[in-house]
Amino acid sequence: KGIPTGEIIERSEAHENDIPHRTAHVWVVRMKNGKPQVLLQKRAAGKESFPGCYDTSSAGHIHAGDEPLESALRELEEELGIKADESDLSYAGIFHSHYEKIFYAKPFRDNEITFVYVYDRPVEIDDLTLQEDEVESVKWFDADYVQEKISPPRDELFCVPREGFSLVMEWMMNNKNI
Q1: How far apart are CA 59 and CA 65, in angstroms?
Q2: Would you call the peptide bond into 153 cis, given omega within 30 degrees of 0 as the criterion?
Q3: Dihedral in degrees, nearest 10, Cα atoms 73, 76, 82, 84
Q4: 18 φ/ψ sector (left φ>0, alpha ψ -120 to 50, else beta)
Q5: What is the distance between the terminal CA atoms of the chain, rounded to a whole angstrom?
Q6: pLDDT tens, 86-107?
Q7: Which are the contacts of 128, defined by CB distance < 8 A and separation ≥ 6?
């Protein structure tokens, strides 16, 4: 349920042994020509899961002792170079995802409880500083296009979690003044 147990495990152990763990996702959003858009990162080719796929704007594991919001702010700065304050992020919800896939001929297990945040301040792609080992590039997408790509049958170029995307779209519908 996203409540820390007090047990500390390494990231690799969580994925190897299918252990539930917490993550924080930040979705960078905007309205353009009356349409909701999301900024997606293209994951670096060397990532252990979903290399080269379009994913959430920024995301990462919550370190032991950290709070979800603290982790969200850290990941946003590390991956995209956006230095935000707590008041710049809006909480959109929480979801659980659990899957197993094969990457590089070995199983990758993910059992995440994800805290979802929205960043709706103006962002220009040319002003971002991307974390090279994590993020190959970023691109703005119309939300309708992303919805189409992540609906069955899923376009494998998009690894955006449907549950997180739904939370963000719901947030945007309730906050149309962005």
Answers
A1: 17
A2: yes
A3: -20
A4: left
A5: 30
A6: 999 999 999 998 877 777 777 7
A7: 80, 81, 82, 138
